[in-house]
Amino acid sequence: MVRNVAGVMAELESEDFYLLSGVEQGMRFSEWVNREKLPKNSGLTKEEVDYRIDRCMTRELIERKTIQYEGYKLTVEGYDALALRTFSQRDTIQGVGAPLGVGKESDVLEVQSFKPLALKFHREGYTNFREVRRERDYTSDNHHVSWLYTARKAAEREYDALETLFPQVSVPRPVDHNRHAIVMAKLDGVELSKAKLASEQVTGVLELILDEMASAYDAGYVHADMSEYNVAVGEQGITIFDWPQAVPTDHDNARELLARDVKNIVRYFRRKYPGEMPDDVDFDSLTDAIARNDFERLDAYRD
Ligand SMILES: Nc1ncnc2c1ncn2[C@@H]1O[C@H](COP(=O)(O)OP(=O)(O)OP(=O)(O)O)[C@@H](O)[C@H]1O
Ligand SMILES: [Mg+2]
């Protein structure tokens, strides 16, 4: 997990954020932003920039590298700080709490508002970027792949999907979005992979999940990464989360992806609860029924 920047937020002043925004702006054009661009980008005097650079370097919000020129870039923590600042200015959140989960490409934290919410920082291009760099250590800006851009796009895609699907589909209620971060309702219950369903609950829970997949398809999306790790089961029912890779139903591969999602989830139930599940499932007709949003309960996945 990336270091939690919440601890330094209280020490930061408005001008520190001007500097961070100035670096962010420059990163649209190059990986390392020339120090000479910073006064203009941040609206600070040269002296003020010097002072703010020191403060932000000490807190590891920016990194320095001298190539042909002295360049700076945001660290992930610096980018997180900018998003947190925006959420706090909008009164979306009042504080940051404990980690709720670490995904392959995200860090999820509890945040305080009137009620506890969840904040998901997307890490998409960042984790890939680290791998790419190890393979070929390029320093030229020609190949500049900005993780800021990749992570921000992923967050936008996820937020768009949540806004379209909520409340018709049982997904976390979207609350706010900025840069690579989204704020949403906290999940009720535990991940399906960790849930121990009583035998009489098994088919009912699977039906609820398939029902939500059908509603999502009806609302215009295929999740495209359905698994026991992206469904929560609680007292109030089930919630499907983790939507950045969702694909619109008018996409060429939508049906294929829906079929794969259906197989993933039904096969998980068959592996974990073999005694409660039919041996044979007609996946084609089940997928058809879900796409039409009119499947008839258990009958649809029995031969
Ligand atoms: N709204 C939420 N409320 C509480 N916990 C959450 C919430 N969203 C995500 N989490 C926790 O954070 C973890 C990672 O979230 P999510 O699955 O959305 O991220 P990811 O990086 O895309 O995951 P994956 O590893 O599946 O690619 C989840 O497994 C879950 O435990
Ligand atoms: Mg996930």
From TrEMBL:
Highest taxon, organism lineage: Archaea
Question: Which keywords does this Swiss-Prot/TrEMBL entry list?
Answer: ATP-binding, Kinase, Magnesium, Metal-binding, Nucleotide-binding, Serine/threonine-protein kinase, Transferase
State whether keyword NADP applies.
Answer: no
Enzyme Commission code: 2.7.11.1
EC class, as a word, reads transferase
Q: Which family does the record claim for this protein?
A: Belongs to the protein kinase superfamily. RIO-type Ser/Thr kinase family.
Give residue ranges for domain RIO kinase.
Answer: 65-288
Task: Enumerate the SMART domains for this protein.
Answer: RIO (SM00090)
Q: What is this protein called?
A: non-specific serine/threonine protein kinase
